[in-house]
Amino acid sequence: MCLAIPGRIVEMVDADLQLAKVxxxxxxxxxxxGLLEDDCLQIGDWVLIHVGFAMSKIDEQEAARTxxxxxxxxxAYRQELEDLRESCID
Length: 90
Known about the structure:
Layout: E1 5-14, E2 19-24, E3 27-32, E4 46-50, E5 53-58, H1 60-73, H2 75-86
């Protein structure tokens, strides 16, 4: 199962390559934010991430509701986070 997961931008890594570092469940990874270049993303913004791409900018309340819903899914969400922790993507 593939999930889109909320992540909080903690660093703008490379403007030319449109990369930002996000935190998801305590794990930090670089993602591509090129699809949202018109949204003027900043550190602290929340984005919905799928397969390494920020798909949409969301507010903190929507992020919290989505994270709560993912927690209710249970095992699939926990497995997705475990896979993320074990990945070696920089």
